Amino acid sequence: MNKYLKELVELSTIDKGLDSFTPQIDNAQNRVSKEKDKVDSVQSRIDTLQKQIDESKDKIVSYEEQIGSLSKQLKDIQKKGKEISTEREMKALSIEEEIAKEKLSFANEEIERLNRVIETKTALIEEAKEELKALEEVFETVKSDANQELQAIEKEKETLYKARENKIHKMDQKILSFYEKIRKWAGNTGVVPVRKQACYGCYLKINDKTYSDLIRGEEIVTCPHCGRILYIEETGEDLEA
Question: Which of 107, 113, 174, 224 lies 20 to 30 angstroms, CA to CA, from 157?
Answer without folding.
Answer: 174
